[in-house]
Specification:
Radius of gyration: 17 Å
Strand content: 15-25%
Strand order of the largest sheet: 3-2-1-4-5-7-6
Structural class: alpha/beta
Oligomer: single chain
Number of strands: 7
Length: 205
């Protein structure tokens, strides 16, 4: 058993060295489920010289699309990660590493109770672990049921997160004007789905 534990420890990857990757000690921000990359590329462009970014996406074709945009825009402060979010955070991001974590328009589960859910208790615990003290987790969705379930889960973690808008305001009905847009945001707007649930939580440590 001891040998198996040693082998497991040897196989476990080291967390990402963001300072080594970017060559500086600027704050690191992460978008989970970065999709086609429009939003994260824009934010990385705006944050040049002030912050570094990572875009995490499970689909390789979307990573390739973002990679192309990244090269075209000359974004040296953007790192792309391909993999499942729970696993990537747990295995590759050290505790107290990230300045901000963003989740924009996550896909809701196909049916109620489905295990194919990104924003579950395990994800929030990992997000809390990787965020620096008092830094923020931001979630944007246009799905009312998904927003409600997400807020209920976060309410069950009062020692980990609290809404930055106050205890009686778990979300805003729209994102700030300078928040930026994405492929999916524009897709929903074209379909007349304009209501947003903008949630922002502080990591308590």
């Amino acid at each position: 058993q001891q040998q198996q534990q040693q082998e497991h420890q040897q196989e476990a990857p080291e967390p990402l060295d963001f300072a080594g990757v970017f060559g500086d000690d600027l704050p690191v921000k992460l978008e989970v489920c970065s999709g086609h990359g429009d939003w994260v590329c824009r934010r990385a462009q705006l944050d040049k010289g002030e912050a570094n970014w990572a875009g995490l996406e499970i689909r390789r074709d979307r990573i390739q699309m973002t990679w192309t945009k990244m090269l075209q825009q000359g974004l040296r402060n953007l790192l792309l990660l391909c993999g499942e979010a729970h696993h990537m955070l747990r295995m590759h991001v050290a505790a107290n590493t990230l300045q901000e974590v963003f989740v924009n328009y996550p896909d809701p589960p196909v049916w109620s109770g489905s295990r194919q859910r990104l924003l579950d208790n395990a994800f929030f615990l990992e997000a809390h672990r990787v965020l620096k003290p008092h830094c923020r987790l931001t979630i944007v969705t246009d799905d009312a049921a998904y927003a409600k379930t997400t807020m209920m889960l976060l309410l069950k973690l009062p020692q980990h997160f609290r809404s930055v808008f106050g205890p009686d305001t778990p979300y805003l009905p729209e994102a700030p004007a300078d928040y930026g847009s994405s492929y999916f945001d524009r897709l929903w707007e074209n379909g007349k789905r304009t209501r947003r649930y903008f949630m922002q939580y502080e990591a308590l440590k």
